[in-house]
Records
---
Amino acid sequence: MISFLQLLALLAMFQWALPNEIPYLQIYDISDISQVVPDYSYVPDLDLASSLRHQNPLRERDNITSRFGKNEQEIINIITETIEPDSWNDGTASIRLWNHKLLVTAPARIHSQIK
């Protein structure tokens, strides 16, 4: 049998822990990291030394493929695979994409890891 004092102690403990476990909605703007910069494969390279020697200062570069940014689904996968993966599967947390923003409903401990 639980005494009255033990019950009060349990209630106080749960009352303190409960706000940290209540899921809330946080919106994260990921437009700055989700945009893909176009890949310009043919861009001439300006060689100033050859222009001083009165030669053609433009020379071809190798076709360098560089892509900056991540698409939104890759960002969602990174978050759900690295930050408490079980929480996304058991319904503790959810994540949705809307207009280059992540809508994350999760407890405070998960939001602190996303930030």
---
Amino acid sequence: MLSARGWIAHQPRVFVSHALRNRVESAKRKLNFVSTERMMDASQEYRPRCIYLTCKSMQVFGENFENDPDFQAGMVEFTCTATFRNLGPDGNDVSYDECRNPERECFKEY
């Protein structure tokens, strides 16, 4: 049936069983728990990176670069902006793990 504005006046109601509704709510709680758990893990693992470390993922995705599929697949080439090469000022390789080590002599926290 159409109303004066041309819309359907009465739309059929969809009834969802209580069992289905409970399963959906349970799944939502589990997902929320997992995402909260991941956030806690991420905060515990945080190590600052060197200010000179850069890669294409950082330029494109910004601080969200860890979600770049190339970064996750390990296909990113890191560069040191102090030397503009894949070697740091100390002559060691540039990588995400190496440039998060505060004991490295060229390390400056980002």
---
Amino acid sequence: MHPNGAGARRGSECLVMLRAANDRNQGAIVAKSRSELDTILDELAAELPMLLKDTEDQDDFWMAFTGLSAAIEDSAHPDDLDYVRQRINSMLNASGVIPPG
């Protein structure tokens, strides 16, 4: 991780906010609308360059990114999962990031 831990804090803060929003819905995760998902995915895409810069190695990056993307997938309706995964893969491809094989 970057010496100051900025990437870990930023990623975990986003995850905490997403989980808190889900928790406010009577303790159960309520599926986000496509519009809400787009907003969250746009925010993740905007954070991606800083997350890449702030993490020292690929393992740290993938731990942070997987936590964030999993939280988004968890908040999606089953009908939107393919859409969310396509958006996540597109943002990784656009940033030149190759998922571990």
